[in-house]
Amino acid sequence: MGGAVAERAAAPAWVRAVAETVDDPRAELQALVWGPRFDRDHAFALLARLPRVEGPWLEAVRTFGDRFDALPPLAQRALREGLLGMADNAACRASC
Fold first, then answer.
1. What is the pLDDT of residue 86?
2. Which of 1, 8, 20, 71 could share a disulfide with 75, CB 3.0–4.6 Å?
């Protein structure tokens, strides 16, 4: 598996489900982690758009948020930069 397919396969189920319902999935994911704390309200609002929400997804979002919030600031920054790099790589794959 390569590129975007591998990235989607590695994403949690709730992220994959949300990605199918928004115009710019990477921007939405970046918005969730751009501040010093995971934006749970935004994540739950994205889940609310889905026609059906799997029960474990709510807990998965909470757990993801807790883990992100527990990261030291430099690790949070590295995660954000990784998301930006994924977006840059996707643009290159589309045009290279």
1. 66
2. 71
